[in-house]
Amino acid sequence: MARTQALPVLACAFAVLQLVRQTGLLFSGAGTSRSLRQSSPRRSLTALRAEEGSAGSGSDRVQLKVLSPEGLGVTEAVSEVVLPSASGQLGVLANHAPMMTALDIGVLRYKQAGQWKPLVVMGGFASVDSNQLSILVNDFEKVEDIDLDAAKKDMDSATSALEKADSKKVKLDATQSVKRAAARVQAAMFGQKK
């Protein structure tokens, strides 16, 4: 029951975070010149940043922050991130345009010091703005905490449960279990390739 309530709570927290971030910038006028603010009141904050060039535009790094209901998960300066978005894989590099997306269960990969590192995420939301990638997830698991043999057994049992599912509810739950197990196996195998 607590897991099903976590997604709406995360969504609200993320919306509040974005609202505070945007209104704080709008009220303080951070990153915009006085002449630009007065010249066209209908211009968006994003357009003003693009015209002026944001402070981090010369940077080749993205500040990655992964947060869960239990607290801070990962905070790293990375060169590239590949997200398991709800509509497919999504890559984020430095100076990415501002955006927000829903995340699916899957493997988030980030490149740090030339090496890819996987992280299993259990759905959530991601927001990119000014070389800051903030990710709010329902839960996550680091590759060091995953045992490949146990993950494969979980995958087999989840697949078996999906095949035996007789109602829509049971089938939906089994599908989510298969996604989680597949992501754990994928991350563990990725971690062993190092």
From TrEMBL:
Residues 63-139 form the ATP synthase F1 complex delta/epsilon subunit N-terminal domain. It holds the Pfam family ATP-synt_DE_N. Residues 1-22 form the signal peptide. InterPro entries: ATP_synth_F1_dsu/esu (IPR001469), ATP_synth_F1_dsu/esu_N (IPR020546), ATP_synth_F1_esu_C (IPR020547), ATPsynth_dsu/esu_N (IPR036771). Keywords: ATP synthesis, CF(1), Ion transport, Membrane, Signal, Transport. Residues 144-188 form the ATP synthase epsilon subunit C-terminal domain. The keyword Membrane applies. GO terms for cellular component: proton-transporting ATP synthase complex. Transmembrane segments: none annotated. One of its GO terms (molecular function) is proton-transporting ATP synthase activity, rotational mechanism. It is a peripheral membrane protein. It is found in: Membrane. Belongs to the ATPase epsilon chain family. HAMAP family: ATP_synth_epsil_bac. This is ATP synthase F1 complex delta/epsilon subunit N-terminal domain-containing protein. The lineage of its organism: Eukaryota, Sar, Alveolata, Dinophyceae, Gonyaulacales.
